[in-house]
Specification:
The chain is an alpha+beta fold. It is built from five helices and two strands, in the order H-H-E-H-E-H-H. It has one domain: Beta-carbonic Anhydrase, Chain A (3-Layer(aba) Sandwich). A two-stranded parallel ribbon has the order 1-2.
């Protein structure tokens, strides 16, 4: 999906659909194969959303949204703190790549403890 054509509502729907596929264990084959289309991204990038989130390896942002190469502009920082560099990265992506949606990802360690049966 080209971000210049995607409204925030369309981008959000794409992320919700991707997350539903992830939860159901039914990820899209295009996601797996997106790296084979590198030539589509040589001229630039057009992510549909900006997603700042924590660096925690248990929260793989592109995977949980079933997103492929070039679909998301992901910014990860430990603790997901709001630092000038994070704001600057969001501004850079918004100004240069055109996504209309910013999704701020957070998580709680309790979710991982429940999932592991602890």
């Amino acid at each position: 999906m080209n971000s210049l054509q995607a409204s925030a509502k369309e981008a959000l729907q794409k992320l919700q659909d991707g997350n539903a596929r992830f939860v159901d264990g039914d990820r899209c084959i295009d996601t797996y194969l997106s790296h084979t289309r590198l030539d589509e991204h040589i001229a630039g990038q057009a992510p549909c959303a900006i997603v700042p989130g924590c660096s925690d390896s248990r929260v793989p942002i592109k995977i949980i949204f079933d997103a492929g190469l070039g679909d998301l502009f992901v910014i990860r920082v430990a603790g997901n703190i709001v630092a000038p560099s994070l704001i600057g990265s969001i501004e850079l992506a918004a100004e240069n790549f055109g996504p209309r949606l910013v999704i701020v990802m957070g998580h709680a360690d309790a979710v991982f403890r429940r999932a592991a049966g602890a």
